[in-house]
Amino acid sequence: MRKKIIIIVSIVILILLIGYGFTKALFTSNSIRDYYLNSKGFYFETDYDTSTNVYNFWDGSMIEYNVSNIKDDKYTIDDINYEVRCIVPNGVVCKINNKTTKYESTLKGGKESTEKIYLDVETNNKDVEVQVVTKSLSPYTKTIRNTVLLHKDETIGNFDYELVNYSNYSLLNISNYYNQNKCFNVKWNEKNLLVSVEDVTVVASDSKGYVNEFTKDVPKNDTVSIKFYNQGNTTYDKTIFQISECSLES
User: How far apart are CA 28 and CA 24, in angstroms?
Assistant: First the structure.
């Protein structure tokens, strides 16, 4: 019976190749293959909606997607052994769930099973194309191919700051270009500028009680301003500050 089904499917594919061209036939043959596997109660899916997935503002963080044995509220009875491979250009590293280039795992059958896949792409390129191949190995084979296009914004995943001077005060503007909230630690010589301690967390002061270190939380993709007062007539720039990332308060 199985041989008969395979022969019928092969004939259909051959007709499609002749009448409609290879690309359309390949798409249709994949659909026939899915129909055949689903008729066997075999479901192997990912939650990528399309074959090409574009990340226009990639900040270097891990890309994630789900692999499951579920389709239309149905699940596969048997365990599914599968692998994920990452194909990248020379000079680019792609780790899959902390493995290199290839990851193997099993979806437990007899219930709804989902596993999250993390792609950690390391590159100095601004743009990179990653080919992701998710393939079941048993009890049936099914291959899902996706293209991931990563476009890195050079400002994302970083921070910057500037000191703007006015007639009787200065503003230290800290810009957070990360896609998550960040804490920043600020140090400077308190003999040059006095900080307005409103809305900052004081870390250290000198013997006279003048603050010379504080932390400040900055929301993702936002800028905050901290006011300073000049101790004399000298005009300063941002180089007098030492700013680094710190841990957010829980």
Answer: 6
CA distance 131 to 149: 9
Mean residue pLDDT of the chain comes to 85
Taking alpha carbons only, the member of 69, 55, 5 closest to residue 33 is 5
Q: Are strands 52-58 and 142-152 parallel, antiparallel or unpaired?
A: parallel
Residue ranges covered by each domain of the chain: 1-39, 42-152, 159-246
Q: What does the pLDDT look like over 174-207, one tens digit per residue?
A: 999 887 899 999 999 998 899 998 879 999 999 9
Residues in Cβ contact with 237 at an 8 Å cutoff, skipping those fewer than 6 apart: 163
| CA angle 130–132–133, rounded 5-degree value | 150
The CATH number given to 42-152 is 2.60.40.2310
* Start-end of H helices in the chain: 2-20, 22-39
Q: How confident is the model at residue 98 (pLDDT cuts 50, 70, 90)?
A: confident
* CATH number of the domain located at residue range(s) 159-246 in this protein: 2.60.40
